[in-house]
Amino acid sequence: MAKKRFYASMVLAIGLAVGLGRCASAEKQKDTASSVEKQKEAVSKEDFHIYLAFGQSNMVGYLGPDIGKDGNSGADTAWVGENGYDTPPANFVVMAAANDDNLPYGRKKGQWYPAVPPLNRSGNGVNPADFFGRTIAEAVADKEIKVGVIVVAVDGVQINMFSPDLDGFKNYITSRVDQVWERQQGHAYVDASVEFPIPTSDFDTVDYPYKRLVDLAKKAQQEGVIKGIIMHQGESGVQDETGPYNEYVRRVYDSLCKDLGLEAGKVPFLAGEPVREDSLNIDAIRSIPEAFADIPNTAFVISSEGLTGWEPGSQEDWGNRRIHFSLAGYEELGKRYGQKMLELLYR
């Protein structure tokens, strides 16, 4: 009888411990969400500055969580612990662009969270938007300004992925027969009912990457003001039958301004150069401001001069060295985006 009482007590104790642990975890998530809500309430709509970010793999954040600050595989985790990447400025938040049930994030589309990387989706890395947002947030903290970012990005995609019209998006994505990863990652931005990965035949969807960015931006406008747009894209897809690359970029910018009720020419647009080692399509990216000639001092190209590329951990990944930045490269590039936006809007 004594043994039965002992085992019963142990079971009860274990059950209580598990229950308390779950409660503590739930409370922690609740506290995090609550802190973001309090932060939003602490500033006026005019002082909540929101930035839109889109692009391909460098805006996704190529470095995974097993990549250290030196950019090499197998090093210490890049943004957890002593590095401080998991403790962003209190006035820097991110709106989840897709549902992400993977722990420890558990983010829900359209909700604000502390800007702990990855800002795009779990399993991705830090990107220029991380350090762009931190740079601005730290510079304006004493002005009681909050900074929010919304990131929609997919590895390897051409600019057509961000077509403002649904048909343009569908024509592009269904043509990506061999680029399965684009159709896999892009699935996060289409209707959940769409076959995974996105099929190469026609399919029905209301949602798509451009629309997702617009819909989230409209929601964000209920609480803040969209101040600028940043892009890192162009390593692929700058030569296309749809027309000159810079004109397509301008079309995306104009559509965002129209759909969000923004005045073209009053919202800065920043595009980043690729890794200089290969200078992949750098001339096309540098030509972007030419397409904004009628609204001068609007579009700017952020230099990647002196920034290092990613050092792969295996020979199979060597081709990515000329495309993706190292962690130090992302950090400096993001700071350069931020410093330019500070110069344009906060001087």
Question: How is the secondary structure organized here?
Answer:
Blueprint: H1 2-42, E1 48-55, H2 57-60, E2 92-95, E3 112-114, H3 128-140, E4 146-153, H4 166-173, H5 180-185, H6 209-221, E5 225-232, H7 245-260, E6 269-272, H8 282-286, E7 299-302, H9 327-345
Helix pairs in contact: 3-9
Name the assembly state. Answer: single chain
Mean pLDDT comes to: 84
The CATH first-level class comes to: Alpha Beta
Spatial strand order of the main sheet: 3-2-4-1-5-6-7
Q: How would a crystallographer describe the biggest sheet?
A: 7 strands, mixed
CATH architecture: 3-Layer(aba) Sandwich
Rg? 22 Å
The name CATH uses for the topology is Rossmann fold
The CATH superfamily label reads SGNH hydrolase
Count of separate DSSP helical elements = 9
**Relative helix content:** 25-40%
> How many domains in all?
1
What is the helix/strand order?
HEHEEHEHHHEHEHEH
